[in-house]
């Protein structure tokens, strides 16, 4: 099939490349001329595992091209146009800013002839499909138009796997032609076992927000249980494992940490609340989850200050990992931003390192020292804060880190590293939802005497393997 994908960001590029991989003829369009020029020259603007190879393979095969202008809608030239532009929060009320979606819809309406299927992949509030259809029909009353909602559920860092082997594909459609086209387009994924769910357009739009709100609730929930673990001397890793093995609950998104961030959860939950308020419906659970997360991000820097004895003025603090999660270069709403800014304002000198997020971080973080490696970041540090669960941190030589650092305080906000290894290297270790351990603390971790093997033990048994990390990454989303 012939496809246009408008918006060549995380979703548009991944979707475009994957549709091309499935044999379609795809043009990815973006108004950002520099981005398109780069893509035409073989430069992929985002870090997403496997994406570079997939793009170059499909460009070479002639199935994938890039352009700045929408063209070729002269009737029958294009089967489907996907809208995958950003829908950031509006400054006024945190609802979704749909100006880019409507700009694209308006342009499509002026250019299209004959028949057109327009599919919204961007995350948009319920009712947007109706509004897009109205706008387009008023501009192009003779166009045979299908407006479809097909929300995207991919996770950055796992985007290609998620696209090619999704748990489900949700399609909200109000007419038979649109349904048939989407059925054909997704047939290869359905054949591989993906569930293809057809429903009303409004329902599809709401599925995306409801799913993200549920995941956010799970994260905020386990973070609060982690706080309780610290208070009662239990270990959150053991508790989360014991809870998550219940199939009614599931282990995904039960990783306690510094709070969620990223380009989707914060803005989508805010937009969902705005929709609910407009409809005079209370979403108290979602509201609480958002507030809990906001408070948590602020409290993380306070933890560091407390671990440093209540004062960080003049101290050197190394922050390892900046992106909102591992395996992406996305810094949007990353917990590290609030942590770094608060510590800096409290008078600390901050050194930072991230395996992929440094270019983005340079645009966001001011007055910090950007370092070339994790080890050099720790040079002269009084305290080390691990803020993102990058796999490469698992292989850090902790003795070398200790030799580089000035102080012996290690704050692992992801419970990534084996606390015993850190202890052996001489650090006092502060994790999340577990007792702090170190020379100045009691040397034994809380033990529940549980039969279930602890995550630390599991990691040690496997030498803190990549498989352990994969499991961790899979459950943090
Ligand atoms: P992004 O910011 O990475 O990319 C959006 C792209 O759209 C940019 O390159 C921008 O230049 C382009 N654009 C904006 N207006 C345009 C216009 N009028 N014409 C052409 N191009 C235009 O955004 P993203 O992360 O890919 O997200 C896109 C949408 O998908 C959002 O609604 C988001 O909520 C949703 N989503 C994102 C993810 C994710 O993990 N990033 C996952 C699922 C859904």
Characterization of the model:
The protein has helices spanning 10-21, 33-40, 51-60, 99-111, 128-139, 159-164, 176-191, 201-232, 236-244, 265-278, 284-307, 335-345, 358-364, 374-377, 398-404, 419-424, 455-461, 466-476, and strands at 2-6, 25-29, 64-67, 80-83, 115-120, 144-149, 168-172, 195-199, 316-320, 349-353, 369-370, 383-386, 409-412, 428-430. It is of the alpha/beta class. The protein folds into 2 domains: 2-199, Rossmann fold; 208-477, NAD(P)-binding Rossmann-like Domain (Rossmann fold), CATH 3.40.50.720. The strands form 3 sheets. It has a 6-stranded parallel sheet with strand order 3-2-1-4-5-6, sandwiched between helices. A 6-stranded parallel sheet has the order 11-10-9-12-13-14. It has a two-stranded parallel sheet with strand order 7-8. Helix 4 (99-111) runs parallel beside helix 5 (128-139) and helix 8 crosses helix 10. The longest helix has 32 residues, at 201-232. The chain starts with a strand and ends with a helix.
Describe this structure in a few short sentences.
The chain has 477 residues and is α/β, with parallel strands linked by helices. 44% of the residues lie in helices and 13% in strands.
């Amino acid at each position: 099939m012939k496809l246009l994908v408008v918006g060549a960001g995380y979703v548009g590029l991944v979707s475009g490349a994957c549709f091309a991989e499935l044999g379609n003829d795809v043009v990815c369009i973006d108004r950002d001329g520099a981005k398109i020029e780069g893509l035409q020259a073989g430069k992929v603007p985002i870090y997403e595992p496997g994406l570079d190879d997939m793009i170059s393979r499909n460009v070479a095969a002639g199935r994938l091209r890039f352009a700045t202008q929408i063209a070729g809608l002269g009737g029958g030239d294009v089967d489907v146009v996907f809208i995958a532009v950003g829908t950031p929060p509006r400054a006024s009320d945190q609802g979704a800013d749909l100006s880019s979606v409507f700009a694209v819809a308006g342009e499509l309406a002026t250019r299209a002839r004959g028949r057109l299927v327009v599919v919204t992949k961007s995350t948009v509030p319920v009712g947007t499909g109706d509004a897009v259809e109205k706008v387009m029909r008023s501009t192009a009353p003779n166009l045979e138009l299908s407006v479809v909602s097909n929300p995207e559920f991919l996770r950055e860092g796992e985007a290609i796997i998620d696209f090619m082997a999704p748990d489900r594909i949700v399609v909200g459609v109000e007419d038979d032609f649109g349904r048939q086209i989407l059925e054909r387009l997704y047939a290869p994924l359905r054949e591989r076992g993906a569930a293809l769910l057809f429903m009303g357009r409004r329902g599809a739009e709401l599925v995306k927000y409801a799913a993200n709100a549920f995941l956010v609730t799970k994260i905020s929930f386990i973070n609060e249980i982690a706080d309780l673990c610290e208070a009662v001397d239990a270990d959150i890793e053991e508790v989360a494992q014991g809870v998550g093995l219940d199939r009614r609950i599931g282990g995904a998104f039960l990783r306690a940490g510094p709070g969620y961030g990223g380009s989707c959860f914060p803005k989508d939950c805010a937009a969902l609340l705005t929709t609910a308020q407009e409809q005079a419906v209370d979403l108290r659970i979602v509201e609480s989850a958002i507030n809990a997360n906001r408070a948590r991000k602020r409290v993380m820097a306070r933890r560091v200050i407390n671990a440093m004895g209540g004062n960080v003025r003049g101290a050197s603090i190394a922050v390892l990992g900046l992106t909102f999660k591992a395996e992406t270069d996305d810094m949007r709403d990353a917990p590290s931003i609030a942590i770094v800014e608060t510590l800096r304002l409290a008078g600390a000198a901050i050194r930072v390192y991230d395996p992929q997020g440094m270019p983005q971080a340079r645009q966001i973080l001011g007055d910090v020292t950007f370092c070339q490696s994790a080890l050099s970041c720790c040079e002269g540090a009084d305290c080390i804060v691990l803020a993102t669960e990058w796999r490469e941190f698992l292989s850090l030589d902790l003795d070398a880190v200790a030799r580089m650092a000035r102080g012996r305080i290690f704050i692992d906000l992801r419970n990534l590293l084996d606390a015993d290894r850190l202890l052996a290297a001489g650090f006092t270790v502060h994790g999340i939802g577990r007792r702090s351990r170190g020379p100045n603390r009691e040397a034994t971790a809380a033990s529940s005497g549980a039969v279930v093997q602890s995550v630390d033990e599991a990691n040690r048994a496997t030498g803190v393997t990549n498989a352990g990390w994969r499991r961790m990454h899979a459950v943090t989303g």
